[in-house]
Amino acid sequence: MNTKLEAVLEKHRATFHQVVAFDAVLDSFLLLDFTAANTELSESLVADTEKFSAYINNILTTNNCRFGIGGYMEIREIYKRSALFSFAVNNLPSQLTTDTSPSITVEPRSLHFGIDIWGNVGTKIFAPLGGMIHSFANNNNFGDYGATIVLQHQLDTQVFYTLYGHLSLKDIEHLRVGRFITRGECIGHFGTAFENGNWPPHLHFQIIEDMERKEGDYPGVCKVSEKEKYQRNCPDADLILNMMALIKK
């Protein structure tokens, strides 16, 4: 899928500031697999944020990598830890949940449309290009983004947005919608589990063409049946990150 936005991002790819600081010569990144193929990810492990964090820290340390990375268009098992990604039957209208009702199957959200960068709490996050604050919010459901910032940008007349999820609450305390953000400005930090939606510390970074009138939030995980829509609206975030080529072999 080659959209106009993808073409613009590819054209300017070499100009983007690093979203997290790294040395392209010395640093390598570990590809983290959160699909069903990773048999180490038991339900009990991912349900316990402390154990989940320890698992990620251990695997990064063992592989001598500063960051874990990956997840674009990955069908993930880890979202089973939160009801946010599926509609339980007990949340449906009462007339649909009687003993005589037929069983109801609801497709969960499991297809991830950002790139996650896993690392230490407090890791600085930088704006890859100039723009302005479109919106921000504390999406504080269990398993949600927690503190979130959305920036609006324009390149070659093409308007688009970048979303930064799982930040520190202090990063959104004094923001103002419409404030200009310069390229390379520090806009946030990896938050703790308490403020980032109850996840191990990481950044969810996503490119979005159309925010669909949403503010401070946009789905980073969709139903598999919605793949075509979200793939068109949310191109590969590595077009800006330029990190996937440095994955440890």
Give an account of the 3D structure.
The protein is an alpha+beta fold and 249 residues long. It has one domain (4-246): Glucose Permease (Domain IIA), CATH 2.70.70.10. The chain has five helices and 13 strands. A hairpin with a 6-residue loop joins β7 and β8. It is globular.
Structural class: alpha+beta
Structural domain tally: 1
CATH architecture: Distorted Sandwich
Low-confidence segments: 87-103
The proportion of residues forming helix, as a percent range, comes to 10-25%
Distance between the termini: 27 Å
CATH topology: Glucose Permease (Domain IIA)
Radius of gyration: 18 Å
Average residue pLDDT: 89
Which CATH class? Answer: Mainly Beta
In one word, what is the shape? globular
User: How much of the polypeptide forms β-strand, as a percent range?
Assistant: 15-25%
Profile the largest sheet.
Answer: 8 strands, mixed
CATH superfamily: Glucose Permease (Domain IIA)
Tag the structure with descriptive keywords:
249 residues; alpha+beta; Glucose Permease (Domain IIA); eight-stranded mixed sheet; three-stranded antiparallel sheet; 5 helices; 13 strands; globular
